[in-house]
Amino acid sequence: MSDSDEDYMSDAVLAKCEDKRPGIVPERLAAQYRKEQKVKEINSKNRMKPLKVLEHEKRSEGLNKPIGEGNKGFSLLQKMGYKPGMTLGKKGTGRMEPVPINFRSGRSGLGEDTERKRKQEEMTKWRASMREKRLRKETEYQQDYRLQKSKMMAEKEAEYDLYKSQRVCEQLDEAQNIREPEEVYYWTPAKMKMLMKAAESQKSSSDDDDDEASDEDPPLGFHFTDESNKESYRDILNKNDNRSGNEEEEDQLPSVAHQRHMIADERCMLPTQLPGFM
């Protein structure tokens, strides 16, 4: 290394470097920015505001400014005992602030806002009433559905109990060689249908014969001791075959629950005490 070369470790090399720290704005740019901000503030102050804005500012300033003591009305109130911050009225329940001034911004009529509010209130009440009515209807439908289902289940249970009672009566009558039940609903519909078909076939086959005695003796050991029972058999079988028949035919037969109780009364026991009742 020659003597003319400077030592890179000396302070002379560092002094030649410019002080430029990263992230710091130079003073010249900062001064220019401040100058631009002052110009913007001056322009915003000197800019002419719209007339509506100026009127609103003046109005707000005047309404927010309290009445001075130099006002004659205020001085008269003070002589009557009024102090700043008090409310008007004898009991102190009056206004503390003056009635506000509301300026209309649109061109609609004077009563349009009131009418619009009234219609909105009516619509709100109507919607609330319709919602309440819908909820009430849904509750009624649910209750009706539950009642209908419970009624159907009760009818099915009664029909099943009646069938079991008829089956027990039929077995007891057969054990005692009873050829005809006392009432048409004492035996099961299947048994009655089979006997009725046998009686009808016997009657049709006996029409060709001259023997009148054979016309009244059905096969299978069954004999009608009462012609009214024969007609009742036919009615009950027709009803079981077609449940959607006339209401007059349905009224001729007792209800399922009534039939069951009548069977129990004839047997001198409770419906739940019949043999085979579960």
TrEMBL record:
Annotated ranges, domain G-patch:
69-115
The protein in question is named: G-patch domain-containing protein
Record-linked PROSITE patterns: G_PATCH
Q: Which intervals carry biased composition (Basic and acidic residues)?
A: 52-62, 113-140, 224-246
Comp. bias intervals (Acidic residues):
207-218
> Where do the segments described as Disordered lie?
40-71, 85-142, 197-260
Give an example GO molecular function: nucleic acid binding
SMART domains cross-referenced by the UniProt entry: G_patch
**Record-linked Pfam families:** G-patch
| GO CC terms | kinetochore
